[in-house]
């Protein structure tokens, strides 16, 4: 232990832990009461913001994410606050112009962020340069991040070069981000040793426990010279989350690496969050447990629960293993991108389409097309030329930094959102999620913000409940509107499907029988597709745009609709030449496979 030193700890309880285990649903009201104790621990930092928290605040919790940050800053005066920033993607799912990136970083710093962990899904460092400069300009800590993955091209030498390049960029520290739990203990030792021997910066190891190996990896990282580890308080630890804070503190206690953190105080914090977790039982999933198969399919935890929900909506949960098998094949076709937002969604959604369509790349999502055109940056390895040709034809591929093609957009965003934005922060919320952001700001102005409902604890485990996120419908019966949340799918028999639903919070078991061919699943009342000119979708989702009107002439293969599923957009095409007889959907409508959305004859 000649080079032993006190190990620093970043706790991810207020961000990545609940993102990994309960779909990022923890509300600010459940964070603030324990902040006084969290602030006494002596963590190096607390990760509190970024990742999917911004999206979940606006989409589900109807909270202002900036207000959450300000409240946490006030409640944690003695602890550095840290966020996860997706480089040029910020917290959205596309690249933003440099002026938006600069403004976002400055506002995050103004509102309380001290440490910015900046990464790019492809490890294309051109995509983090603007954000890193902005962090330094704001006088904050810039942490350059290596997205760890395994493939024929991802070698320790490549990662060392990346760390050196980030140091040259002005990084204050380096993080190894193992989002899928792919690190093994001895590979960790070699990688940390290699980086520390060439880069004289503090090194952090962030590893999810998906395969059960993360605590061992962190121990080997510490022996190899790592300075800091990311952990989660035990009541939100392990599985697709992180090593338990208390366990790692106990493991190092009494050694030269002793963290100096108080186990009794940590255990009081764990007791608090153990109770909090019960509130969110409906977001628990069997796919967040430890599973060493991640070493084979490389699916990160957050992606697992996403895929499970997506397939459950389609009554195809039994195909999830097929999807897991398909993911490595799609990843190879796309040049081995690390699986982290947004590439995890890009690869995962395409794998779902490939499996459910029964034919690989029969439908190619818009994001895969954009990726293959260089829209996200340089893939780590060569992509499959046949798939690229099928996706983009003879269109050119952009070899430059994707954001170089973007004009400044902040003024246009300000104009677009207008008086609904009461601050620059509001403009940036709108920039991240235009439709969602506008809806959120409008509801805030109207006083109609309403968070999604939490199911009472007594429903936990009852009638198969508590294992899936509810699918919600509105049903009109004799002039009365009922809001129905379907929270579990039961047995299906001949012509019947048993489901469990909650009306006004009361669980009931109901058997629905198909009344006639015009009642599609999901209660939309749309007819079932039966003719070649009936346009339908392969995946449940929402309509983003309708590209044709009644009376338009279309050709086979023409895009007529754009739908969104799992945050990925897909064009839906006409299968015949003809005239649009009827359009049954508008922007924002929920759609399910098999329904007639457009009729072409």
UniProtKB/TrEMBL annotation:
GO CC terms, sorted: cytoplasm
Keywords: Biotin
Signal peptide: none
Residue intervals of the Lipoyl-binding domain: 526-601
Stored Pfam families: Biotin_lipoyl, HMGL-like, PYC_OADA
Positions of the Pyruvate carboxyltransferase domain: 7-267
Molecular function as annotated in GO: oxaloacetate decarboxylase activity; pyruvate carboxylase activity
Superkingdom, natural source: Bacteria
GO BP field: gluconeogenesis; sodium ion transport
Protein name: Oxaloacetate decarboxylase subunit alpha
Organism: Marinobacter salinexigens
Gene that encodes the chain: oadA
